[in-house]
Amino acid sequence: MELIRWNPRNNLFNLPSRFGALWDDFFAPSRHMTDNEGLWGWNPAVDVFENDDAIVLKAELPGVEKDKICVDVNGRVLTLKGERVSDNEVKQDNYYRRERTQGHFQRSFALPSEIDPDTIKASFKDGVLKVEMPKPEAVKPKQIPVNS
Fold this sequence. Notes:
The protein is an alpha+beta fold and 148 residues long. It has helices at 8-12, 15-27, 35-39; strands spanning 46-50, 54-60, 69-74, 77-84, 103-110, 121-125, 128-134.
């Protein structure tokens, strides 16, 4: 996974337009939405870490049904796809605010090495998807004994 260095000066001189966009998004959120944002309306929060044996990904997917989640690995790229379906059970027209997003999501992650797709384990419990990808033998850390 590649890291991008954050530079606070990049956003410092752009504050007026950022505040304007924030104001506009509050009253007319769809006006500034790009085609990509309209198609993929939200991105779940994800933690990716590694231990000695595996690379682990945990994604928060509250309200997403298990059968609406897809995990793909193609070479060194892991892709999560899914959909959170709107619950339209509210029969009142008195909405003051609707902040919970729904729709499709897709996130892709570059893995540090190729992973064997047959060894991947995925579990979904309490709205959290956990994907464990065992490291190939060549990548696992190996302790070398020091001889005298």
